[in-house]
Structure formats: C-alpha cells, structure tokens
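Chain A, query sequence.
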Amino acid sequence: MPAPPTGCPFPWSFSQQKVSRSWAIISGSGWDARAATGGSRRYGQYIRLEERRLKLGQYLFLKHGGKVVFFGRFVAVLRAWAAFLAGTNRMRWPRFLLFNATGGIVWATLYGLGGYFLGDNIHRLTGPIGPITLMLAVLLMLAGIVIMRSHEQRLADEAERALPGSLDP
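Chain A, predicted structure.
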C-alpha cells in the first residue's frame, strides 16, 4: 500500500526544511555576533566610539540586550544591525541565540497569520498605515536620541560602576 500523500514533492523535504531553517538561525546568529566584536575596538575611534561609549553600550546590552534583539526582528533596519550591536557589546551567544530565534519565530508567525487572516483585504490597511508607521518610527527614534543624549552622562557613570576598569579581556 503506498504512503499517503504529504503535499511535499519528496517525503524528506519537510524535515530538510526544518533542519535548514534551524541551521540558518544558529549559524547566522553566531557568526554576525562574533565577527563584530573586534571591529569596534579597532575602528571605533574613527566614528567617535571611544571606550566610555563602548562601556555604556555593553552596560545597556547587559540590561536591555534581549529586548533589542527580540524586537529588532520587527524593525527592518534594526534587524540588520541587531547581530552587529550584540557582538560589539559582547552579548553572550546563547542569550543572543535565544532572543534572536524567539523574535524570528514570533515575527514569522505574526506575519504569516496576518497574511492568512487578512488575505486580499491587506491592501486596505497598507495605504493609511504605511505613512503613519513611518512617521511614528521617526518620532520614536528622535525621542530616543534626545532621551539618550540627556541621560548619557548618568548612564555612563552607572556603566563605570557596573563594569569597572578597562574593557580589554
């Protein structure tokens, strides 16, 4: 008796897809994060990234790095920079992998379900939501810059207390 149809052209393709997706998450997550670690120390001086700001970045990533990586999956620009920022700020790889994979799975699930339930009606939402979302994102980024600039010295002092001494390993 033949096996029931699976909807896949080959019976092994579903398991191959799962393995390849898992490998993409693991290898992509680790490579970007580890490759970025040395570049900020070597070339940071050219973009005004001195040790005080590197220490501040590491301190903020200790406190909020998981949130940045998780929600970075939902923002196109941050999605590309999340691994670089995590590597530069020495976020531990297992923690990065957890938040990156979880964020990617949630993002893909929400987009997939949104497409499934909205179907052809999505064009009704994309018209007004696109410019509003862009304007909101720009305003949030400007507010974040203003808040960061106004609190940079206090946060740098907190970072020095939390991470005393030099950043060299």
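The helical segments are 13-35, 37-43, 51-72, 76-88, 93-118, 122-162. The chain is about 80% helix and 0% strand.
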